Amino acid sequence: MSGDVHVRICEHLGGRFPGVTRRNVYVRSRKAGERVLMGLRKLYDRLHLKVNEAKTAVASVYGRKFLGFRFWVAPGGEIKRAVAVKAIHTFKKRIRQITRRACGRSLNEVSEGLRRYMPGWKAYFHLAQTPKKFRELDEWLRHRLRALQLKHWRRGTTMYRELRKMGASQVQAATVAANARRWWNNSRLELNRLMPVSYVDRIEVPRLS
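Above: the chain's sequence. Below: its structure in token form.
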């Protein structure tokens, strides 16, 4: 059983407890989970505590999250920790805000914003055993930064000139410049080679992996 049991401490008890407490209880079977949950309800009722039924359930451990984490089964049946899907969505939403193409900031300024946010997120979720997911998020972020750089250059002629300064061949620069308005698609093509991981590292963008 995995139950997010939310309780409110009644004032007359005088207890110094947080207003909302979350608990996950893990047992071997659904039947055992239902039995334990029934017992907890009786216990909380005697203590005059209120259970938030909307966030309380008997469910598979793989369908629940706790403090931003979830469990997953690795090859060989080993149970490991991962970042919950909702936490990933929240992370990507925040990164989109920092790297939005309409902000008019330079890559160095965007990198500064990323340095203020990402280290704390990484430190909180450092117990997650999902190196592949972190690598994917790093790649996604680099993709956004390349697209942002193209957006800053705007015109095909500017893209061509700047890419040539970066060492691109005439063919490479012309290929990117020919699709000047397709920033997201362009950032998947030649720009992967022209702005590799080392380029992003030079502007001190944090990594998760």
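DSSP finds nine helices and two strands in the chain.
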